[in-house]
Amino acid sequence: MTGELLVPGLAIAAAAIWALSMTLQKRGLADGGTVLQGSLVVAVMDAVCYWTVIGGVAATSGHTPPITPFILGIFFVSGTVGTAIARLSSFVGIDRVGASVNSAGISTRPLFAAALAFLFIGEVVNEVTVAGIVVLVVGLVVLTLSKGGDLSGWQPWELVFPIFAAIAYGGSDVVRRFGLTETPVTALEAVALHETWGVLWLVAIIGGRVGWDAVDIPRRALGYFFVAGLLNASSLFLFFAALDRGNVAIVSSLVGTAPLFVAVFTALLLGDLERVTRGLAAGALLVVVGATLITFA
């Protein structure tokens, strides 16, 4: 792959792989897995993959992650919001409205990231951002009226789950951006610490409030969650590789095409669970366009 095509290729591959991960998460839920089980397995797989790579880097280069109370505190916040809260909300969204609708809802993430960045770190909101917000809201309305998604049906209020996940992901992005700019951690170390805190939160929820019987996962569901976790980790690796080589706005916009891939994978793999309608596809496309405008603003 030539240099000019490498960054778009990495970003689009990240979007497609993340979309397939979300599709398999829905299949795991349909095969008897629970929201909490899926969230835990995916988060554990992410953390294991990241720390394995970090360990390999440390063994070959001698570089070890800088760990201080300040750094741990930053990524404690991002992991709490972006893994424990956001991922649980995302899984509930997949279960309630379907992977296709959920992914479109989560793609509103740049809207909330922009709003939070404006409030807390003073980033400017311009006319392009406002245009993106309008297009994105229209997309959500079309999505709500699309009659697509989970075949068992869903109510418009249930969009609150993917949108809440988008808010949490957006907030986590702002905290992680602060950590990356104000501390010497690398992007890979940041996401590893982020995911590790998320895993610890999920373990605490299971052990302290739900009970360890909750991790008795049906074999088929476990298989789907396991593969989904590997795909999710691979997607983030590709995303960060693209960010290391290309413009942030372009990479984020290309990765934001994930709902379009989810629609395709849903039609191919979840025909017995979800319905992909023209309205759903149109709504997803409008959300992607709106999010892209916000990202480029």
Number of domains: 1
Main structural class: mainly alpha
Q: Portion of residues in helices?
A: over 70%
Number of helices: 12
Number of β-strand runs:
2
Largest sheet: 2 strands, antiparallel
Shape: globular
Task: Specify Rg, calculated over alpha carbons.
Answer: 18 Å
Summed over residues and divided by their number, the pLDDT gives a mean of 83
Order of helices and strands: HHHHHHEHHHHHEH
Unreliable stretches, pLDDT < 50, 5 or more residues? none
**Assembly category:** single chain
Beta strand %: under 5%
Report on this model:
The protein has helices at 3-30, 35-61, 69-97, 99-106, 109-121, 127-144, 160-182, 187-210, 219-245, 248-255, 258-269, 278-296, and strands spanning 149-150, 274-275. With 297 residues, it is an all-alpha fold. The protein has a two-stranded antiparallel ribbon. The mean pLDDT is 83.
Keywords:
297 residues; mainly alpha; two-stranded antiparallel sheet; 12 helices; 2 strands; 1% strand; globular
Topology:
Layout: H1 3-30, H2 35-61, H3 69-97, H4 99-106, H5 109-121, H6 127-144, E1 149-150, H7 160-182, H8 187-210, H9 219-245, H10 248-255, H11 258-269, E2 274-275, H12 278-296
Antiparallel strand pairs: 1-2
Helix pairs in contact: 1-9, 1-10, 1-11, 2-3, 2-8, 2-9, 3-4, 3-7, 3-8, 4-7, 4-11, 4-12, 5-7, 5-12, 6-12, 10-12
